Amino acid sequence: MAGRPGTRGGQVQADKGGYRPARGGAARGYSWPPFEAGNTAAMRSGAYSPRVAGPLAEVKLGELLAADWLPDRVKGPEARGGLEKLAQLLARAELLGSEVSALDLAVSTVPRRPAGKNSPMDLWLEAEAQVARQMDRLGIDGPSLLAEQREAQAEGDLEAMAGLGARIRARREAQGRGEGEEE
Q1: Is 102 inside a domain boundary?
Q2: For residue 162, is it within any domain?
Q3: Which whole-number Å values give the CA distances from 3 to 8, 17, 83, in the listed order?
Q4: In a domain, 127, yes or no
Q5: Which residues, at least 6 apart from 43, have a Cβ–Cβ distance to it below 8 Å?
Q6: Domain-embedded: residue 77
């Protein structure tokens, strides 16, 4: 008989002479109950969990809608989907950032984990990059906001200059009429 002693076709010999499956059975007579719905046993930061990141994203959306620096064009219903996406990304970045801040500096500087998994630092940096890309798509990144502010200021300056020109013209016309009446 070939193979290991005490085995027969993928089965092992049980204590009382019978055979049981080599895998899949209870090892040494102990077992654990299955995980219950809603457990957080494997959760680390909660950044990818709708139960954790969802409420934080709602708070972030409220903050974005109340922000006075955010242009009205982004707060409107046509841009709401992009703003909700930004709120989700901000929540994810915040949760990953809090996980990174809780790590030792020596642990967080490890570039990669075994099996090609990203380190918490890599995940956080990618989340921050996603936030920046979404802000760029919405046109609320720093350079876009600055250009928009300069454009609004230039429009205001042009309106002020037009108003000044109208006043000067009106004054000259009044002076011209006044000079013509005296003659």
Answers
A1: yes
A2: no
A3: 8, 18, 64
A4: yes
A5: 49, 52
A6: yes
Are 89 and 53 in contact by the 8 Å Cβ rule? The answer is no
**Where do runs of H (alpha helix) occur along the chain?**
50-66, 72-75, 80-101, 105-108, 120-138, 142-182
pLDDT one digit per residue (tens) for the chain, 183 residues: 455 555 555 555 555 555 555 565 555 666 777 777 776 666 667 777 788 888 898 999 999 889 888 888 888 888 889 999 999 999 989 988 888 777 766 554 555 556 667 777 888 889 999 999 998 888 887 777 777 778 878 887 778 888 888 888 888 888 877 754 554
Residue 105, domain extent: 50-154
Question: In angstroms, how far apart are the furthest CA atoms of the chain?
Answer: 136
User: Number of folded domains in the chain?
Assistant: 1
Other beta carbons less than 10 A from residue 84's beta carbon: 15
In the chain, the amino acid numbered 48 is Y
Buried b or exposed e, range 45-75, using 16+ CB within 10 angstroms: bbbeeeebbeebbeebbeebeeeeebbeebe
